[in-house]
Amino acid sequence: MTDEAPMLEVRGLGKTYGDGPQAVHAIDEINFTVARSEFVCVVGPSGCGKTTLLRCLAGLMSASTGQVSIEGRRLDRTPEEMAIVFQDYSRSLFPWMSVEQNIAFPLRRKRLGRAKQQQLIKDSLEAVNLADAGRRYPWQLSGGMQQRVAIARALAYEPQVLLMDEPFAALDAQTRADLEDLTLKLRHEYGVTVVFVTHDIDEAVYLADRVIALTPRPTRVREVIDIDLPRPRNQLTTKELPDFARLRGHVYRQVRQLDDGADQREAATAS
Amino acid sequence: MSTSIIPGTRRRLLRSPKFTDGLLGAAGLVTVLAVLEFSTIVGLLPEKTFPRVSADLRELAGMAGAAELWTAVGHTLQGWAISFALATVIAVLLGIAVGSNAVLYAATSAVIEFLRPIPSVALIPLVVLVLGTGLQSKVFLATFAATWPVLVATIYGMRDVEPVALETARSFRARPRDTLLSVVLPGAVPYIAPGLRVASTTALILCVTAELVIGAPGLGQSITVAQAGGQYQLMYAFIIATGLLGVLLNLLFVALEKRLLRWHPSQRSQGGVQ
Ligand SMILES: Nc1ncnc2c1ncn2[C@@H]1O[C@H](COP(=O)(O)OP(=O)(O)OP(=O)(O)O)[C@@H](O)[C@H]1O
Ligand SMILES: [Mg+2]
């Protein structure tokens, strides 16, 4: 490692919603860093605070304790070099705007000039294989296409960090696999740093360089697992590797908080 | 789209709900007119105060070329347009301010709930005293009445913006102006557009009322003058003209609403892939 600051650094991050007897202690304490161009997946049981963590990372919500920095700068609101892809694409895209207008909206502030802006829109739509959809409206597209538009909008913004909160959870398995591969391809082409939240362990292991497994509430980091599977990854061959099965099992145990013998006991009771 | 005369197109048209509704509507109207006409003919209604509908309509048709009708329509429309525009601007600006500011909302909602139910016509004596009997009074009354539906709609619309859309704008660091004009306001249009339609109708009613009661020039005044002169056919002709104006304005706003809300689930035609 060089001595330059990591792309993202989360230090002592904690979050409690509300106060008094109704307070929800969502995140106890989380620490981790993300290096430039790294692909990090965050997995954890349902309701453990993954969305909460991501919103704090994005500067959309302030943490109760601790802090988040991007390239050494402490962030208070979403930094310039960060874009977010929300899970709920149908609400995140603006239905009164065409696909092109949706992509152009975040660029307005940048005052890029018409030609440059058109180029960015065209390139990003091509990158997500929607070159012909610019004039259409989000609600005229299928769910998978809508999420691709949301990804194109994030890409056109030229971010260095892409945050994704369960972006494919609402899609069918086939579309989901396609979009996973698209995400990997775009990460490779754009060299962007990705933090990807999911509750799907297969997805996390398939995509990530590192998986951060969280405990149930109040949430801490249970383990950080290096995923040393070869790239480029492939839905078939990667998932057939013995290493994939091993890593998947390991992450599964971490997330389900099973000790080493527990899975055998679970298997015994299931049969 | 081509205007093909493929066999079957006609039959489909005849069976389409829109066409059937239109046909039924026309049939209902013709029936009512026929009953009225017949009632006068058989003496159920006195001919003097209820001239035959056909005669009223003929009177109206005869006036179509005369300046008198169009001057009256012009006066009424002028009052309507000024008050509708004023009400819209006032209500939308006020609604944006109140709807986007929790403190202002808490401070004003009681005032709004108190002022809103006051029937505009109750203010007529006061308004005549202060502003006289001309255009100003008419515009004041109509604006007062037409502001409320748009104001309330705008406030509700502003407070019911999709939180994920707002968060998306915030995450891209959109400027407040862009967020307001391109995210919050369009998101409030499903509330505001029906509010505008109600405001248009309200403004027209109040304009005609002001003309009737305080004698400001316009269709309402023409009705009173015709009635005072015993020209009942003329009076009915003006009443029918007023009704037609109301129907036309309403149609205009229905079309506008459809256009503005093309993207909204209530208006989306087939074409979405789900
Ligand atoms: N605005 C809020 N006010 C109070 N409690 C909240 C709020 N948002 C989330 N919580 C609570 O914080 C905890 C973590 O929620 P969060 O949405 O971050 O979990 P998650 O891991 O994203 O869940 P999921 O897997 O369902 O997406 C939950 O127990 C939730 O009830
Ligand atoms: Mg979540």
TrEMBL record, chain B:
**Keyword Transmembrane tagged:** yes
Going by the entry's taxonomy, the superkingdom of the source organism is recorded as Bacteria
- Report the residue ranges that make up the ABC transmembrane type-1 domain in this protein: 73-257
Query: What membrane topology does this protein have?
Result: Multi-pass membrane protein
Q: Which UniProt keywords apply?
A: Cell membrane, Membrane, Transmembrane, Transmembrane helix, Transport
Stated family: Belongs to the binding-protein-dependent transport system permease family.
Instruction: Report what the protein is called.
Output: ABC transporter permease
Organism this protein belongs to = Actinomadura craniellae
